[in-house]
Amino acid sequence: MINIVTILTSILVIIVFVTKFLKKSKQNNDFYKNIRGPRGLPILGSALDFKTTKDVLQNLINYTRDYGDILRAQIGPFHRYILVSNYDFLECILSSSKLIRKSHNYKFLHSWLGTGLLTSDGAKWKTHRRILTPAFHFQILEQFIEVFEKCGNTLLDKLQNEVNRESCDIYPYVTMCTLDIICESIMGIRINAQEDSTSDYVQSVKNMCRIVVERSISPLQMCPFIYPLTKNYWTEKKSLKILHKQTNDVINARRKELESSKENSSNEEENFTKKKKPFLDLLLETKIDNRMLTQEEIREEVDTFMFEGHDTTASAISFTLFCLANSSESQKKTFEEQQAIFGNTQNVTASYADLQNMKYLEQVIKEALRLYPSVPFYGREITENVEYDGKLLPKGDILLIFAFGIHRNKKYFKNPENFDPDRFNNMEHNSPYAYIPFSAGPRNCIGQKFAMLEMKSTVSKIIRQYKLLPTTPQHELELVGETILKSTNGIKIRLRLR
């Protein structure tokens, strides 16, 4: 009896499955008439091209090379993608106030980030964006310089162990530093991550970034009924326990500090209420519809910024150091700028104004982000009919915005594979939708000014104390897009004291 029920259920599922597939295939075919893409297999599409997360970035590069900067691809029966690295199309997408919903793939982040600023849309996204924007006012950012300096000094001390060695993977050191920075500045809590090089939190973030991409390319793991039978499901549960505990600990610790400070002095309380508040303080004191945010709502936003505020920045800083190590001329110019600002470059505390004056270093960081964007691709869902080039974009399909692809497109960047910070001198390219490491338009990165200051501060401190050199033989990066751009074989350079 059980077998018969199982068989009948399976047949019903297959019928529904095929019906939805055929209906989807017929929708808005007019748009796809002149758009090429990999043929793939019936039902599975191109899913077999993506055996592991290591295949994702390279396949997207290959597809763009073979089929152009607007192409179609199918992964599984229901999810049709439009892979875009075309300027005009990106301008249409990113500038739109309608196309702001993240794609279905982001639901795989919900168990971790809930519907925080990264994954939410509609009224909730607009409300939370408005609430959190003041936390990144320049007067708030100025207060964080002291944190950048302190955490940066700890990083310099840790790197002493790597001086004169033939190879140093810079990424793990930088990751711990950026985690310390995001917690102490934005969250107002010290966790001393740099003193614990085996952080369970960091490993759990890595696990989740990998799992999200693996679920996005596996038709089986996309299925909510099959996923609990996989190894990734149990890895995710273990990782989430660690991640949510860390976040709740940070929230509760900050909540106690604020309550204690208010009780100690009425004058202090008055000053507290008048000054601009950092990120976590805003969340703890904000009311929406006359109610305080719940612990879960606060945790969703804190999880989002803990992740985005340390992992993306760690990636950007590490690739910037790699680029400087392998470009002696750019490193020379960077160091000369530091000398011009500070004179004696070591043991000097950089002010907010000093960081603002690091114009060439900013070009260096921007160029590193062009070659190695921290988020190499991201998705949007077409939620309503939007016209592009005289045709309607197919409602329900997914736009995969390929930042890595357009950043290396020779239409917009001369000699795109070369590291050339001077291309950002006076915004030579003058194409805002061709350079999108922080996205663009209404859903651009809310923390990009914070990130740029942090990156400048950290790279400045390192370049003033250490001379960066390439490894021998020169390290070849093995890039992989696991939500964040990383190198599976590390980001290796050599360090010498100046």
Short description:
Helices cover 53% and strands 10% of the residues. It has 498 residues and is of the alpha+beta class. The protein is globular, with a radius of gyration of 24 Å.
Strand and helix layout:
Layout: H1 2-26, H2 29-32, H3 54-67, E1 70-75, E2 79-84, H4 87-94, H5 110-113, H6 122-132, H7 138-143, H8 145-159, E3 168-169, H9 170-187, H10 200-217, H11 219-222, H12 231-264, H13 266-274, H14 279-285, E4 287-288, E5 291-292, H15 295-325, H16 328-342, H17 352-356, H18 359-371, E6 378-381, E7 387-388, E8 391-392, E9 398-401, H19 403-407, H20 448-465, E10 466-469, E11 479-482, E12 484-487, E13 492-497
Parallel strand pairs: 2-9
Antiparallel strand pairs: 1-2, 3-13, 4-5, 6-9, 7-8, 10-13, 11-12
Helix pairs in contact: 8-9, 8-20, 9-15, 10-12, 12-13, 12-15, 15-18, 15-20, 16-18
